[in-house]
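Sequence design from tokenized structure. All designs in this work follow the same two-part layout: the structure record, then the generated sequence. An example of the structure record is given first.
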């Protein structure tokens, strides 16, 4: 195997690892955001967990924009005191928290 082939395989492995890491971070962030929103909607236990899972699943229907739309609409219907700015702040804050949690293992 040539040096070029070895480098190519290393690059592919690193790319795959980075993609998996980003997926885990987003899934964790979405779960944390779902739990935060569930708390604002006064959900707890199984209901809060189910809501958090629905937020994670929304990622597959349109990415980050879909997550924010879902949480904003759900909170507007059940917890009207929560602003879009608060939701975006939590989204950004929880992105950092999720990254730290995933990196720690």
């Amino acid at each position: 195997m040539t040096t070029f082939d070895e480098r190519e395989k290393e690059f592919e492995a690193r790319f795959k690892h980075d993609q998996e890491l980003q997926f885990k971070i987003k899934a964790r962030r979405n779960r944390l955001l779902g739990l935060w929103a569930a708390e604002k909607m006064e959900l707890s236990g199984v209901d809060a967990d189910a809501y958090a899972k629905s937020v994670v699943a929304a990622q597959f229907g349109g990415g980050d924009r879909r997550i924010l739309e879902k949480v904003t609409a759900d909170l507007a219907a059940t917890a009207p005191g929560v602003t879009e700015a608060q939701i975006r702040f939590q989204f950004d804050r929880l992105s950092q928290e999720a990254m730290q949690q995933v990196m720690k293992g």
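The chain has a mean pLDDT of 93. We note this feature because it recurs in several other targets discussed in the main text.
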